[in-house]
Amino acid sequence: MRSNRARPAVTFCTTVCTTVALALACSAQAAHAADQTDPSTATVSVDTAHPSGRLPGDFVGLSFEMRELGIGNLDPHQGNLTTLLRTLGRSNLRIGGNTLDRDTLWVPAGQQPPDPLPDWVKDVVTANDVRRLAGFLDATGWRAEVGINVGRWDPVAAADQARAMTSILGNRLVATDCGNEPDQWVGKGFRPAGYAYADYKPDWEACAAVVGNRNIAGPDTASPTSSWAASLAADEHANGLTMLMVHQYSMDPTGTAARLLSPATKAAQAGAAAPNLAVAQSLDLPMRFDETNSAYGGGIDGVSNTHAAALWSLDYSLQMAQLGLSGINFHGGLGVCNQPIWNGKWQLYTPVCADDTTDEAAQVYRATPIYYGIWMARQMGPGRFLPLTLSSDRNVDAYAVRGDDGRLRIAIVEKDDATAGPVHVSLDLGAGGGTADVLRLTGSALSAADTAVQGATVDRSGRLRPGRPDRVRVRDGSLGLDLAGGSAAIVTLDADCWRH
Length: 500
Description:
By secondary structure, the chain is of the alpha/beta class. It folds into 2 domains: 39-52 and 384-498, Golgi alpha-mannosidase II (Immunoglobulin-like, Sandwich), CATH 2.60.40; 58-380, Glycosidases (TIM Barrel). 34% of the residues lie in helices and 28% in strands. The protein is built from 14 helices and 26 strands. The strands form 6 sheets. Strands 2, 17, 19, 20, 22, 23, 24 and 26 form an 8-stranded antiparallel sheet that branches. α7 (197-211) links the parallel β8 and β9. α8 runs parallel beside α10 and α10 runs parallel beside α11 (307-323). It is globular.
């Protein structure tokens, strides 16, 4: 009887176990089936036979406020900023910004600052500061554009500053910039209501006269589409204007990461650049966005200081270069990360910043996510762009550059969040074989700040030592790689792997 009563229990257990096993098996089969579905794809075909516009070696640079010069920063003998710029490679530094006209006073050599200082003065700049800058430029191999205060115009001080910069900086000075954002001077109280380009033109000419009509840049308008830039280019390209410079910010302070990385924002960036760029190119005049970043007003917390900004800065840099700009300068400051630095503005979009006030005083800075995007963009040049066609069901962009060193580099930027999963990229070069190096820019999420290059981050000394690149086989001019959502890669091929 015991045996008979036990059988149903055994049968029940077997039934339950079988049901569970079947459920687990079905679940595993479903997961396997999901794994076997076609992943998102991107197909990139590069035309290696028809190089087009140039990617200059100094295309991607940095921009700092004039106050950084006046308070003793940019010192080659302090901290790690020299190493951080060396890590990026030789490039272009712009010094100006709102503090140039608003609160910086130039004091000629042999003179003492007025006592008391005028109410508007917060920073004093002298020839000794320019000498320190010269040492910094020598130590980094960078060159610079430096501004003269035209908003609060003093012709004697301006002439002395121009002479000092020319004498001390020499060929390290790319251009002198006459004033900052003159199209906003009325709102800042520098000029009366109704001040327009016709009024600005003689102000610019007065600055050009004291500079000596050589290596002068402007107008540094706040709006990239301002007609002042096109007008100045047309009026002064034969009278000393050597570079057209305007500002470009991709969003207002209410933007999101998704919006920053969207095709709509990318199209708007190109559209904003187009009018003045067309005029500059028609006059054979180089044009830089000498102040640019993700969003004006200091940036957006959770966007400008996250991995999203790293992906954006890489893509934006190559987009602007391919359009034909001569360069861009990512604006930032040297204060404490995510803290107000000047005039209540927050330190959110800057490529480097200090972790705390102790590091700020020691001029020791850390790289933020956008720094890594800039570093990746710098790896693509110098060289010439190659046309390509791209097809994908995801938010992916790609650029190809034939380097002056003979190598072919393709940057692929996947701008969805990591949760979107990987994209399989098929790259067609037409012919060639061998192996390619793949250098990856990764982060755990668009909203995170853990950006890395091949698993490596910038150390406290300012150096970046990426791990060994991945290796991918090239067969008959084709290769394939998987790219994680919210990541980027630079594929590099030696000349003997792709030329045909």
